[in-house]
From TrEMBL:
Gene Ontology molecular function: sodium:proton antiporter activity
Keywords: Cell membrane, Membrane, Transmembrane, Transmembrane helix, Transport
GO annotation, cellular component aspect: plasma membrane
Protein localization: Cell membrane
Protein name as it appears in the record: Multiple resistance and pH regulation protein F
Main location: membrane
PANTHER family associated with the record: NA(+)/H(+) ANTIPORTER SUBUNIT F1, NA(+)_H(+) ANTIPORTER SUBUNIT F
Residues annotated as transmembrane: 6-23, 35-54, 60-79
Protein's membrane topology: Multi-pass membrane protein
Length: 91
């Protein structure tokens, strides 16, 4: 099956991209850059979890990936409100 041949390569590429984005999150000059890097990393992790779930035929990984994606979306809203409030104060 084609998924058996392609999945290991895709998993490797996503793992490397997660590592690179993690470095960007640590070195980000502003909070906005760090938030964007963490978002990208988390969505890459969710995608990686779904790919691994298909490759291993384990549905539990998909069940855990969906709340993780929703959690990062809620975190985006919270940080956006925090940054908006911070800019109104002038800090």
């Amino acid at each position: 099956m084609i998924i058996d041949m392609v999945a290991p390569v895709i998993i490797l590429v996503y793992t490397i991209s997660i590592i690179l984005v993690f470095i960007r999150a640590v070195k980000g000059p502003t909070i906005g850059d760090q938030v964007l890097a963490i978002d990208t990393m988390t969505y890459a992790v969710v995608t990686l979890m779904i790919i691994v779930a298909v490759y291993l035929k384990e549905a539990i990984l998909v069940v855990t990936a969906i709340p993780l994606a929703l959690w990062i979306y809620a975190l985006d809203i919270y940080i956006a409100k925090y940054l908006e409030k911070k800019s109104e104060i002038g800090g």
